[in-house]
Structure formats: structure tokens, C-alpha cells
Predict the 3D structure of the following.
Amino acid sequence: MANKEDTLGIAVKMEQDFPEWYNEVVIKGGLAEHSTIKGFMVIRPHGYAIWERIQAYFDGIIKKHGVKNAYFPLLIPESFFKKEAEHAEGFAPELAWIEKSEDDGERYAVRPTSETIMYDSYSRWIRSWRDLPLLINQWCNVLRWEVKQTKLFLRSREFLWQEGHCVYETEEECDKEARYYLEQYRKVAEELLAVPVILGKKTDKEKFAGAKTTYSIEAFMPDGKALQMGTSHNLGQNFAKAFKISFLGRDEKQQAPWQNSWGFSTRLIGAMVMTHSDDKGLVLPPKAAPIQIAIVPIFRKEDKDSILKKADEIKNSLKKYSVVLDGREGYTPGWKYNEWELKGVPLRVEIGPKDLEKKQAVFVRRDNGKKEFVPLKDIEAKAKETFDLMQGDMLNKAKKFLDESIAEASDWKSFEKELKSKKLVLVPFCGSGPCEEQIKENTGGATSRVIPFEQPENIGECVQCGKKGKFMVYFAKAY
Amino acid sequence: MANKEDTLGIAVKMEQDFPEWYNEVVIKGGLAEHSTIKGFMVIRPHGYAIWERIQAYFDGIIKKHGVKNAYFPLLIPESFFKKEAEHAEGFAPELAWIEKSEDDGERYAVRPTSETIMYDSYSRWIRSWRDLPLLINQWCNVLRWEVKQTKLFLRSREFLWQEGHCVYETEEECDKEARYYLEQYRKVAEELLAVPVILGKKTDKEKFAGAKTTYSIEAFMPDGKALQMGTSHNLGQNFAKAFKISFLGRDEKQQAPWQNSWGFSTRLIGAMVMTHSDDKGLVLPPKAAPIQIAIVPIFRKEDKDSILKKADEIKNSLKKYSVVLDGREGYTPGWKYNEWELKGVPLRVEIGPKDLEKKQAVFVRRDNGKKEFVPLKDIEAKAKETFDLMQGDMLNKAKKFLDESIAEASDWKSFEKELKSKKLVLVPFCGSGPCEEQIKENTGGATSRVIPFEQPENIGECVQCGKKGKFMVYFAKAY
């Protein structure tokens, strides 16, 4: 769809107005748009294809691990929410209720997450230790009635996600597995999307409503805000008890099993876009890009046929990849370059009359703009090499930014200073909820992001209250 | 999950009580269950894996054809429905409304189908003939507030489906493509699910709310009821005009485009189950079965290791297929046979001490129970051969039943007689809505199913009113 607006490129620079720049990059890159319905977004084909790549990558991993997909109802009875008190309280403000359902003598809400509706079934399915572990995942849409302004992919009333819900005989297995899924999330973020993350635990205040422990992968965006990329919860036996899930153990005793749940959403796309894109539009890492190569032939009337023929040969030699051959007439090469740059296509291949003569093509990398002349016979090998390099370079560049964005502070003054210069600040913290609330208030919105798994032996005094610190934790403002 | 109930097999025979038999086959086969929430179902992993096979098969076809997937909001504003009058009226009784949405000054309903919300976006995306054809598909859940009793996969308040929504420059292309997708539906039904179908058009009374023409594939179930397996609608310019979609044509004139939409749902799984299953449980065609082969080793303590080793070798030689090696202890081979039969696994491979001696295994086909001794060296080739045969045999058997179920009638008396003997009856019909209503009333529920594409030159008199018939059409009671 070559709407006129596309030709204009990104009107706002990243430095000028980051949120508006992001919004434009997503819209003009053809990934998504704001729906006419307040708070909702439309995921356009170019954006949905990224989600499909994420799905294929992660679905392959979990299926190999023994997880099976299933589908549970969209609506959840009010009574189910009330069975786990913390969970009910956590989600109450965000629920959208169905009018008509009162005919059935009960109110139903559109699922904000599916613990309760799934565990109602689990309570019938699980009888013996032989039924465990039960490893189930669901790909679906969820609704959370946000009141804040919609940000495409990052905050909207509906989003797409996966939610894994597993049940185990022992707490040890359950917790180990919760961390296994977190490690797979790291792979999705770093290896597919080239977004580096920090792994760790959430504080009690920030953990999932109803969980015993929440693990998280956390990324840091170019505007100095942290972004939670995925969470994996050790639910303990809380839900098992609330939903009366029990099994006959190997010891012949009836007991409650241990559960974890883990999810990531279309928000990942937003994180990837912010991490890599620039003032020309989207920049996508080769592994996650729906279109990996755009071939742009450059021709006059007299050499059109020979150039297009060669361009087609090049396309055929790149069959492994997702390639567009842009042979459209009535558009200049420059216009086409802009369009594929806006859409984040990792590699542009140009071929004109001179190249044809020299039996070469021109490779242009989207991430750094580097040009290279490639002999036609080397095209396939060179494409592979370029993509491997580019995928690595993009991750490394983002890692460098993350490393440079990390600061440590042991007292309030330096903590405040680092936060002001938009750092992700590691501080000793006492772990108390009210203390964390106080920090948020005093800093104008910084929240605890993640308690890294690696901790020093001695923790200093809490930056806020001065009491003995329990652990080191990252604080930052966040999406 | 080896619940005790599974061991009992199907308690009701197909002949005794078809609906209850079907319900048991689905539940005990582990495909789905009734949710605690009235009117909703849970699709269990074994059932969802069939849906994934259907998705992979069809998604491959449409992507090759140039269709791209996207995602549109779950909620639809009331005002959108009202833009196309017939559409609004058709869906009004089945809508579930959101309570909270009135905060936004408008009521929202959960989507029963997505024409309106998608075409709202299309009106912004389409400007010129260069933007056409626009070929978009969505895989999602929809809600239709059914008041009739839930039948797993066949009738429930929520179901999963795909909905394709395409836009074209000309009516000719639009209609041709609507029929193209119908032909792909035929392939899904016949080639993947081994369910034979009749292709044709719907009568005006049965067509989709807002469509110009509805095409349909129609199957016929063993209990003598027809089942609509998928529909493809030529929407004409109705929605384009209602949603103000217009484009600048090659003739430089602004004009309304032509649209089609097409969908099939998880109902396909129900049709496949009814068509093939028996009193022992599910029977699944090899191409659609999530587990294609169950290897059951038969051993005593003394030969356990050697048998399991050989069974494992067999499993490795069948890597192309989805194989379970059922080495569980504490279950008899007979118990295992029952379980895999209940679950519809197409091929059982048994290997015991005598087989080991003779360097053979035993193949047992699920569809006809035939046993065959297969030399171990031929296992892979024989598995392929068996599956090809079985897939064909199952389709042919179902085709034979369909052919035998078709009757023709030219007068009311024979029409009534054929309907009573549970036939799919082809009759001359005048095409009028009231006349069709009358037939439904007089026959206790028979509806027009499909107007086959192939029509005789001369049509007799309408079986109901005696006026000149317009076309031959199939009538039957239906799901």
C-alpha cells in the first residue's frame, strides 16, 4: 500500500520527541495503527508477520520441551476470580464485564489472564502423580481495561500473548522449570529480537497477583526507560489450593501440586522497534524481519529487460530468505529505498546497468547503511554472512547501550543523580513495600525492575530507609 | 492423563444415541470438554493439535496465494454494526455487550465476525487501484451468544476460526476469488480431513447477513444431518459503500471496490469426528492426526530390555511421523490398545518376543482393524503405504455414504419420504424465502443446504408451491 504519507518518511526525530518518533515509526513502518475504538490497536500484516516469527521460534522451543497448546474460554466467571484473593484484587480494576451474562446468574469478565479458568479444568484433569507434569500453553488475546493512553504494542486494552500454565509434583521441579522458561524468554529477546535483557526476580511489590515468586527479563530502552519483556511465575500452591487441585502422590498421599505460569506478549515487538530503529524508520534484525531482502533494480527503458532478468535470477538464488523484488514502474529507485528503509528491511540489493556489466550487485545494510559490491556468484554466501554479522552487530550495539546505561548507587544522592541522567540504577534495598512506594514518590515514578540472580555477599544499607539491605535491585522509570 | 474413566471406553453406541455417542467420543478422546461456563468449551491439547494441523495446511495455501495475516480488535462499536443494515439485523440477537465500554460514550460488542471493524481500517488503507487486491486473513476467536444447547465443536458460544477479507478492483475478480477460496476449503475438508463435501451456493434466505452471494461446502453426517463446513461470501459493494471504501481506478475515477469474505471454524473438527469415528472412539485420518503412530511393546521382565530397544529403533525409523512409544509399566497391552483407539491414533505398531524373533512387527489400522505382519526392514515404507491407503480409504468410505445418502425428488410426497429416511434431497425449488420457510415448517426443520454449481437445463416445478423452479437445491435437516 503506497499511500502518499509513506513517501514523507518520519517527520519527528528520535531526539526531539521519542514517544512521537516511536509512534510514527510503527505506523509508517506498517506494523500497526490506532483503532477507531479507544485504547485498541490494529496489528497490520507487516507487524503480525513479526509476531508469527516470534510464535514459530518460541512454539518450537516449548513443543520440544513437551509443552502442548490448548484453548480455554474467553470469559471468566466472577466467582473464579474471587477464589484467589490477591489475584482478584490485582485484576479487579482492569476487568471488562459482559452485560448479557447475568442471564446465566453470574457475571463474566473477558480474560485478563487465564489462571482461574484453566485451573478449574486442571482440578478435573489431575488425579495422580502419573498425570504430572502437566505442561500446557495457550496463544490468545487478553483484555485489560487500561486508562492510560494507548502506546502501540506497549500499552493497549487488548493484546496478544502466550500464557504457559504448568503443574508439578514438587516445588523444586516447579521453580527450576519457571526459570527454564525465563531462560527461553532470554533467547527470544536476545537471539531472535537482538534485545539484550537482565534476568532476575521481582520484588514482592512488583510480583504477579497471586504468585509466590515472579521472575522477569528486563530491557532498557534508548529513552532511558526500562521495559519488562516477559515474566515467569512460581505460583507455589496458592492456586492449587484455591481451585482444589490435588493428586495422589507416589507416597500414596493426597496433596496439592506446584504450579508455574509464564507469559510474553506483542509488547516484545515494541521493545524491538525502540531498541533498533532510527530517524529513517524501522530497523529490524534479520531473524525477526518478515521481509529480509528488498531487491531494487535500476533501469532505463533500453536495459529494463536484461536488468529485471538478472534481478529475478538474484531473487531465485536467495530462496532461503524472504525476498521482495521491487520491479514497480512509476517509482524512482530513491522512493523505493525510502519505503524499504521505513519498513526495516535488513538488506537492500541494488542492481543497475553498470553492476550488470561488472557482474556484481550492491548490498546495503539497513542497520548501519554500509554499502558493499558483491560479485553475483557470491550473492547467496554473502547474504548469509551479512545477516549473521548484522544480527550480532545489532545485539552488541544494544548490549553496549545497556551496559553504559547501568549505574550503581549506594546512597540517596547518587541514586537520584543517576536516575536523573536516565540510568538503570542498581542499589541496595531493604525489600519493604512501603519503602518502595516512597522511592516511587520521591523520584517521580521510579520502580524496582529486577533483582539480579547474581548478588554480592554483603549488601549495603537501603538507599531509602537506611536499614540493612536485603538485596541489590535495579530501579528505573519504566514503560 | 490416564484417568480411570478413560479405561471404560465409549459407553453409548452410535446406533443407540448419536448425539451422546458423539459427546463421549470427543470427551474421552481427549479433544474437548464442556466448560464450567455455560455454552463454552475447552479445547484440550489433543483437539487443539488437530486445529494446528488444519491451520498449518490452510495457512500454507493462502500465504502462497498472497494472503497476509493481521489482527483486528476483539470489540466492535455498536455504530459500526448499524452501517450495514442486513448485517446488523442478522447478528443482533447473538451479540454479547461489554458493560464498561459505555464510559467511552459507545457500546461495544465482542466480535461475532469482523467485517465492520476491518473495513473501518480498510477505508483508510485503500486509496488507489495500486493498493488492490488487498488480501488479508485473521485467525481468532469469536463469540455468538447461542441459546441452544452446546455441542462440542459444533455449537458453542465461542469458537476459533479464520476469516479472510479481501478487496478487488472488479466484480469478476472478486467472485472468481471467492470461489477460489471455496475450492481450497474443499481441499481442507476432503484431502486433509477426508470429509467429502458438496460445493455450491446458498439460497437468499440462508446467505450471510450482508452478502450478495454466499458459497458453501456442505457435508452429510452419519445421523442423516447436513453440516456446513465453510462459507465464502461475495459481498458485492455493500460493505464498501457502508464503510466508504473507495479507490481511484485505472480510469482515474473514484469508485467502490468489490469484497469477499470467507471463513471456517473449529466446527471442522466436529465434522471429521462424526464422519469417521466408531464405537471404540475416535478415528482420525493420518494427515489430521496429532499422534499418527502408537508403538506398543509387549514384554515380560526377562525380555523387557531387548523389546524396548527394538521399539526405540522402530520409533527412530519413523521420525517423519508423530510417534508415541508407549513403554509405560503397570498397564497391560490391552489397556494401551484401548487408550490409543479412543484417541483415534491411525496406526498401532505392536512388537513382542515372537515378533522380535521373526524380525517383524504387527501393524493394526485404526479405521478397519486390519492386522498385518511387517518385516522390520520394511517398516518405514510400509507406514507410508498404509497411511496413503488409509487416507484414501477413509475418504472413499465417506464418499460412498454421501453418494448413498443423496436422493432426488420432484414432488412433495417423495420429498417428504426421502427426508424421513434421512436423505440429502435434491429438489426443484422456486427460490422464494416464504416458500423455504414453509418447507421448514412442514418438514419439521429441513432447510436448504446448497445449490450445486452444476444444474440441469430444465428445472421442474417447485416441490412446495408448484411454480416454475429456478434451480435444483439440496434440502436436509442440519447441524
Notes: Chain A touches chain B through 58 residues (CB under 8 Å). Residues 1-7 of chain A have pLDDT under 50 and may be disordered.
